[in-house]
TrEMBL record:
Residues 97-175 form the Carboxysome Shell Carbonic Anhydrase catalytic domain. Pfam families: CsoSCA_cat (PF20686). This is Carboxysome Shell Carbonic Anhydrase catalytic domain-containing protein. It comes from the Bacteria.
Amino acid sequence: MNDVHSKSIQTRIDWLSALAARHGEDYRSPEAMLARARYQSLHPTAIAVLKCMDGRINIPVATGTPIGILMPFRNLGGRFDLGWPHLGEVVTQYVMDRVHEGRQVLFLVSYHYSKGDHQRGCAGFAYDQQAAFDHTQVIRQQMSTIFGAGHGTVYPLVCGFETDEDALVVHGADGQLLRVADLTDCDIETLGSRLSALLPDMPSRMREDLLPLLVGNFEHVAAIRQQAQQGLRQLDVEHREWMICLGRGFDFLHTPNLALIVGPYSPNLAEPIIKAAGIIEANMASGRIPDDGFLLLSSVPYDAIGVDQARAELKACFLSEFAQAVIGAAYPALAKKMINRTAILDWQARRLSWLC
């Protein structure tokens, strides 16, 4: 649908439901299954992304990576602490599962900013790019403490994401940078050797598997620049989110700038929910989205039927009720425009089931 942001809230929700259904069907198709298997056989490194809840940060789209390859972890401002009980357990289990498959793990520890207007940067860090970058260094050190400073199996790579052009910035050794937005066609031909110099401590297999993401990002940035020349880009770089998604399993939202996605990781879960509600209210007040309503979508994935599925249902309902109470207390007027939907996701089939 063209410019779904401007449609009525019910039309937007119907569009979202259809999008989730199509994504699940596409994911389960034989062609998609074989494509994922082929990609992972060619690029066996498991890649996860720690990123902000900002709806403009869509790494699969920005790198041209098939859906289902990159594992997302989202929170306000990309703020994470591996000492948080739930987050630490989820990340560790993810790593151990991949290690048992014989795979290395690359974590993209990201922050974001806008080169054109710092007020389009990260609200979670009060638009302070340096503070956001400094926080990624803390996460990187925590990962080194848990999984080893040699980085032979788990490599935490700090990356910036410039939202005006969806361009990655890779931070290497000794403060060196690789800015995808500055690359030329000739640079792409030597990108492998550039990565070797930039990241000498990264295992060669990981560098080879990082390369397609950077090439894909280079091509994506070129497309974004063409859109900008045609006057089609400005609305995409601004906040236009009309959904708050709470939980996990939202990779069907592969259209940028739809949702603020809050992972269930922080012990103070109310903070990112309140921040997300404030952004939704500001979007309505500025006219970037209609003020007829917004969606609160709570979702929890499960791996197996039975106990795991039943627990997912309880958790999804809890998250929904918790968020409703938080938004109602912080933004009572906005809460009157809130439409609640709760779902669980069959992770293996990417099948979304609506509970209410």
